[in-house]
């Protein structure tokens, strides 16, 4: 009897489990069937749009690449940066951070005050500012008689000094890159200007006794003034008389060029020599294109460095407007005018030496733009055709309704 009871209990339990499973299946089917198409569309819209590379490879068939108007759907791909790239990025931020912090702490407020002064009449009692528009700039353009002459002189001086310093630095970097004795000593000698920038040494270098003799300078000056106009002769004469200082300014540029030349792969030169290339051809076709970004950097650095030296603009700002008249507004206006001139020259240098984009990459971008434009036109025409089709269907339905009511005659007009 006990065996029969246990068998009946087991059968009852099995039947209960089967009933629970069937009820769960029916409930799942009901919930699945209860999902409307609107919910399914919402689920599709909420689909993940950012994929990893592995997900793109594994689920490429399930990903939607075009919408109903045949427009490309933007798909974001997560690309993990390597440890080396992350480390380099961190080190770049670390090296740039002191300059950014220093600029924000020490330059942001003075620059803002200078801009306010340029458009104001400054009263020294507590440094009060009264806005006067562009009156300070008008005074500079109207009252400064030698502005255009000194501007031309500055442009010519910069046009002579910057290429001279950059070319000399490049030549010396090429020489210092050769395998010669005491190469480290020569590099240290050319880096001395960065260390010794003031004091008795610079006083002796810039004094009249360290320059070319007065008789020779007068002869050169007379010859240049007879040959060229004054605004062009003076910068050339200054460059000739300060040739030692111009060469002295090229220490940092030499080191930058030297570092760039040493990073060039030597296998390129070996391959060129095997093909019969001369040293001159290697320089023009390997060295110069490779260090072109450094030429841009050195040209901008030299321009800014030369612009900080004493010239007519700085003399007028510091001596006349600040020390003599205490006119901070006009000094700020002339300073910002000078800054805009320097920035314009920097823009010219960038346009000349900025590495040009690869023609293949430019063609690919142009093709992508044309493809995007074509897709937009196709989408517009598709929408227009759908709109016209709806209008035509409405017109047909209206005619059918009028025909059914007997109000439509053969002419196609409604019979009133």
Structure at a glance:
The chain is mainly alpha-helical and 416 residues long. It contains 20 helices and 4 strands. Among the domains are: 50-80, no CATH class; 140-362, MetI-like fold.
Describe the structure.
The N and C termini lie far apart (97 Å). The protein contains 20 helices and four strands. Strand 1, helix 3 and strand 2 (76-78) form a beta-alpha-beta unit. Among the domains are: 50-80, no CATH class; 140-362, Orthogonal Bundle (MetI-like fold), CATH 1.10.3720.10. The chain has 416 residues and is mainly alpha-helical. The model is unreliable at 23-35 and 412-416 (pLDDT under 50).
Could you list some keywords that capture this structure?
mainly alpha; 416 residues; MetI-like fold; 20 helices; disordered C terminus; extended; two-stranded antiparallel ribbon
What is the assigned CATH homologous superfamily of the domain at 140-362?
A: MetI-like
Q: Please provide the ordered H/E string of secondary-structure elements.
A: HHEHEHHEEHHHHHHHHHHHHHHH
The helix-and-strand class reads mainly alpha
Share of helical residues: over 70%
Helix tally?
Answer: 20
Beta strands, count: 4
Under CATH at level 1, the class of the domain at 140-362 stands as Mainly Alpha
CATH architecture of the domain at 140-362: Orthogonal Bundle
Low-confidence stretches: 23-35, 412-416
Shape: extended
Largest sheet: 2 strands, parallel
CATH fold-level topology of the domain at 140-362: MetI-like fold
* Nearest-integer average pLDDT: 74
Q: Largest sheet, order of strands side by side?
A: 1-2
Oligomeric state of shown chains = single chain
Distance between the termini: 97 Å
Beta-sheet strand percentage?
Answer: under 5%
Q: Rg, please? A: 39 Å
